[in-house]
Amino acid sequence: MAVIVQKYGGSSVANAERIRNVARRIQRAHAAGNQVAVVVSAMGDTTDELIALAASVSANPDPREMDLLLSTGEIVSCTLVAMALRDMGVGAVSMSGEQAGIRTDRLHGKASIVALDPARVRYELDQGRVVIVAGFQGVNEEMDVTTLGRGGSDTTAVALAAALGASLCEIYTDVEGIYTADPRIVPTARKLTELGYEEMLELASYGAKMHPRSIELAAWYKIPVLVAHSVKDAPGTLIHDIAGGDGVEITKKVRGVTYEKGVARITVRAVPDRPGIAASLFDPLAAAGVSVDTIVQNASAERLTDLSFTVDKVDLHRALDVVRPVAQQMGAKDVVSNDSLGTVSIVGTGMQNAPGYASTMFRSLADAKINIEMITTSQIRITCIVGEAQVPAAVRALHKAFELDAAS
Amino acid sequence: MAVIVQKYGGSSVANAERIRNVARRIQRAHAAGNQVAVVVSAMGDTTDELIALAASVSANPDPREMDLLLSTGEIVSCTLVAMALRDMGVGAVSMSGEQAGIRTDRLHGKASIVALDPARVRYELDQGRVVIVAGFQGVNEEMDVTTLGRGGSDTTAVALAAALGASLCEIYTDVEGIYTADPRIVPTARKLTELGYEEMLELASYGAKMHPRSIELAAWYKIPVLVAHSVKDAPGTLIHDIAGGDGVEITKKVRGVTYEKGVARITVRAVPDRPGIAASLFDPLAAAGVSVDTIVQNASAERLTDLSFTVDKVDLHRALDVVRPVAQQMGAKDVVSNDSLGTVSIVGTGMQNAPGYASTMFRSLADAKINIEMITTSQIRITCIVGEAQVPAAVRALHKAFELDAAS
């Protein structure tokens, strides 16, 4: 009997009507003869409301307390889904992360799953019951509740699918699947029928709706993941091992165009170029909790170099406070910043061994009169940093240049 | 170092301001050199809101799911109190019932504590931290969350006090203590300075604010319990082992007058009197979940007897549905009922070996033109069932007759 894991996001369980809708969908999968385990997020804005509640009693809530507090959101939604299923005559039982055997490290607020013992989930499935697991949470060695960070329910679902040897992990959300580009920017964007794990990982990291860690986990355990709409019955996007080559021919080399806004850049100019300058800058930034994205260091004449990196716009002032004194110590000329940038990326496994994608990308942007500020690449992705205001035009230009538009 | 357990009810933690107030009170007890463990109820109307949420997805929510759902209310409040304490610089850690070592039987919705292993609580106390425990909950053998029923947080507090060998269990609530009578009915009612366990048990069973099971537990383990106001700094009422006789002289033999409204009576008339008739009636009532209170069976001539008993008014129709067919089978003449009754009781340990209290009570009620419908007694209590409309007058008459009025 096939095991299927389904995951429903917060908007899919935001009220009683939607919970009953979710229960009906689960009922169908169960009635079709599958063993069904379900992971749910907290209802609607519950997590934000709990965060506000914590802020009302403490300026700086303790992370351990915060995790135990936030974990209640998913407990509430998983018990309600179980109740709704029982009301329809479907045997169902809810479980906290702990009861579902999810063990994590001790990093409160963004813990990683280190082990998952699915014995109890499997027992209930074998009794014919549907199991509803609270997403986003686990327990550490001290049996303290931890949370996996935003988007953590995706990770719970894939980890559970892996532990159960599930044939499919279905991620139900408020979009119909993964698109070649954001349909709000590119009206001709197409929904992708399928996608490789690496491609999805790059898309997820750069805007698309799924937590990157969950994709990594799915790739590692080769769990097929279906991203689909929780209400509409449209076919979603299947993320699976395309590279494994089960007859799938990759005709389009570029699979999608993604973007980010709200990117800021800091440039430390004319730094005396000697070993260790990167570490002297990025260690204190990491200590200050500032996440650094793209880093570019120019080769230089005269033993002077320019070092640029991007951060989230909301972190810019904090980052500058850290960087300025360090730059001065290093003997840099000065520190300049730009807080109106964005990224645009093309993604596709087919790009790996085929030349010409970068030049097509740069030419298309130039034709659209878009200046490229920085460039960064991975094996299957090329990202250009451009002016924030030009991001939509850049996405449209690339979507057209790589022939991703839907056949009309 | 003395261990103190404090318990705060839902109204005491209903919002951020009250939570900070509670934290300040805890801080004072901690700063005074005590080891402090705290039990909290869910914020304000949280439990009712969660029950409504369950009702919105299921006509008949599963008890196991309901318990896991309801348990989140106390988790939220205990984490918030811990955060507020940390914000004041007091080391504090919250714990679920499970983490606090509270094991119960499997009776979801009204579980009983069967064991309490305070190892983790004690460890944290020994580190100098305040421990905030979620009231009202525990886990059963299957590690499923159970709840102890309404008022269960009192029981959590006393059980924790017993397990820790606490010198005092403080129950903070929205009243200043235990009164000789309800001050809304008897303006001259006095707050009692102290009270014996048995007296409190009778008062708690008949209207006063504390869960009877928690009093039984306190009596068993001889834990002194202070009932006091969570905001005002007025001295409360100390419930302790008065009978143990540490120099306390009991001058007033009657300690208080309590009452209930909403009482209904069912009378099965002219039943052929043979062994087993009580069982044939009360077994099906118990199976139907109807709680029976006072039972009176009249001795009779001609082998016929009248059997009367009281139930909560809201259960009357359900009870009649059970009783009528049984009465017919027994050959009873008929079944009559009255749904407008109440009780009035006098309570006091000093009554045990002293005569004349009953006659004073009956005479006072007769003087006030109040008809007595039924009478029931315990070792330290006499209860009269009277018309519901006459309850306030009865309470005032008895409060005066037994000289409980405050010295003016």
What is the percentage of strand-forming residues of chain A? Answer: 25-35%
N-to-C terminal Cα separation of chain A, in Å? 41 Å
Integer-rounded radius of gyration of chain A: 23 Å
> How many runs of DSSP E, i.e. beta strands of chain A?
18
For the residues shown, what is the average pLDDT of chain A?
89
The largest interface is:
A-B, 38 and 38 residues
Strand order of the largest sheet of chain A: 3-6-2-1-9-11-12-10
Q: Report the major sheet of chain A.
A: 8 strands, mixed
* String of helices and strands of chain A: EHEHHEEEHEEEHEEHHEEEHEEHEHEEH
Structural class of chain A: alpha/beta
pLDDT < 50 runs, ≥5 residues of chain A? 244-249
Kindly report the oligomeric state of this protein: homodimer
Helical content of chain A, roughly? 25-40%
Tally of contiguous helical segments of chain A: 11
Q: Write down the overall geometry of chain A.
A: globular
